[in-house]
Amino acid sequence: MRHFLTLKDFSKEEILEIIDIGLEIKKNLKSKIYKQELKNQTLGMIFEKSSTRTRVSFEVGMFQLGGHALFLSNRDIHLGRGEPVKDTARVISSMCDMVMIRTYEHSKIEEFAAYSKVPVINGLTDSYHPVQLLADYMTLVEHKAEKNIVAAYVGDGNNMTHSWMMLAAKLGFELRIATPKGYEVDEKILQVALGFAKESGAVIKTMNDPAEAVLGASVVTTDTWVSMGQEDEKEERIKTFKGFMVDDGMMSLAQDGAKFLHCLPAYRGLEVSEGVFEKHSEIIFNEAENRLHAQKGLMVWLDKQRNL
Length: 308
Hints:
There is one protein chain. The protein has helices at residues 12-30, 52-64, 85-95, 106-115, 130-142, 159-171, 187-200, 210-214, 234-240, 248-251, 274-279, 281-306, and strands spanning 42-47, 68-72, 98-102, 120-124, 150-154, 174-178, 203-207, 219-222, 259-262. It is an alpha/beta fold. It has two domains: 7-129 and 291-306, Aspartate/ornithine carbamoyltransferase (Rossmann fold, 3-Layer(aba) Sandwich), CATH 3.40.50.1370; 132-287, Rossmann fold, CATH 3.40.50.
């Protein structure tokens, strides 16, 4: 049995296999071919952090695979408050076939997985957002932009940045990360990624100059400057991140035809300009849709692993 907590636990071949399954499922869906690989199975969905895309994509995805998704909000369950996480894991995993968790501390999902009898999927933690990177890479494959990737991440050194580092390290492409001083990536996670990069030939660079990161990039990406739980820091962050907006001027430094990705929600006028967002809206919303297909590929793959 396997869990999906971070990409660091997966080989290049496994990541690509999950993507391929997702692409095949998407192709079948567009052709009105429905294969219910997870018929009669139940996905428990624990949301301590709310999300539009995560709930819709997992719930619809499980339905399309022939199963059922059970939604538990932070009003229904509080991991580690009252009942220990390990007890919650034992109970829920005895009734569900798979569990997806979207929470704050990464340690919570690690503890849950340690005591779970079924596969656990990280829907997002403060440290990682691996399901989003499956969708991002699937999107690059569909747009024939997965060869010789030079990716530039501009913005906060957050869970998205950490997951981009792991994807680059595993698949062996170049990633440049530009953050304001004081908002760099987690050093421990960076060192883990650099360790994998030595094996794959990936190049991971960190810097404080967004123009340096974007120069010659084939893929440019960013994320909100103010994540959930950081609302009290909003004004200070907006001041600090001035100069890190991905606008037409910044995109002009990238390769001709460079792709722009955004995991959404996007705050136009802050991390991305209205012009850049609308120019690249087709790939951005395909990226959003691919959360559905990539996660279906992941769930089917995880189900197959426990039957090996």
